[in-house]
Amino acid sequence: MKPEPLFFRIGDLVLYRNNQLIAFNKPATLPVLSDKTQDKPLLALAEIYCHTRLYPVHRIDRPASGIVLFARTKQAASALNEQFQNRSIRKTYLAVVSELPATPEGTLIHFLEKNAQQNRSIAYPDERPNALRAELHYRHLDSIDRYHLLEIELLTGRHHQIRAQLAAIGCPIKGDDKYGAKRGNRDRSIHLHAWKLAFDHPVSGEREEIVAPIPEEKVWQAFSWQ
Q: Catalytic pick from 61, 142, 176, 200?
């Protein structure tokens, strides 16, 4: 089933902008970069909006929503890529799950092996060949009738890391039937949101933090933790 069409104005998605960088609050199901579909990605829409070439410095999964940051110069892209590599960028997500982890707060460490053919990752508890170490910290924020809200600090950046690690502990993300959710969301989204991104500005060196409002969707809006 193909995702439903998205209706928005690209300018309304802008969260942050200056001469070096621009960030958008990506809607769920919009790809960041071109994929096997013919759908126009966020990068292409953003370049039309900015009237210039942009440089991707990270991405989030197509079914997820939230912050996507682009550099407007090669120098800014290089500076941000270095921060991602040395893990000085802080990435915080929100995830809705139907099962709570065993403890309200904790750190998960797995070893992820990517299956490119199936476009999914498998999380193993112990080291194994071709598997990469993956680490995240989670915290329970709130609960409603059937769902629970977790805050996730991503400490490494692996393919489908949050999705695979939460699934590995029996807490798949709402709508993520690829990773064990009982059913998918109608629009093919998953309830995973790139909420906060903190980094050093590539020119001033000052610490910046971007926050993306949560989606205007009934389950997201049902939580009253803020």
A: 61
> What's the number of domains the chain is made of?
1
DSSP assignment of 4-73 equals PPP---GGGGEEEE-SSEEEEEEPTT--SS--SS-PPPHHHHHHHHHTS--EE-----TT-EEEEEEESS
Asked if residue 4 belongs to a domain, the reply is: no
Tokens of 15: 């969260």
- CA pair distance 60, 120, nearest whole angstrom: 14
Tell me if 39 is assigned to some domain: yes
Residue 187 falls in the annotated catalytic set: no
Binning the chain into helix, strand and coil, the percentages to the nearest 5 are 20, 35, 45
The parent domain of residue 131 ranges over 10-222
Does the reported pTM lie above 0.90? yes
Return the half-sphere exposure (C-beta side, CA atoms, 13 A cut-off) of residue 197: 25
pLDDT digits (tens, 9 = 90+) for 122-132: 999 999 999 99
Q: Which 3 state secondary structure label does DSSP give 188?
A: coil
Arithmetic mean of pLDDT over the chain: 95
In a domain, 5, yes or no: no
- 180 within 8 A of 123, measured Cβ to Cβ: no
1 domain-assigned:
no
Domain CATH for 59: 3.30.2350.10
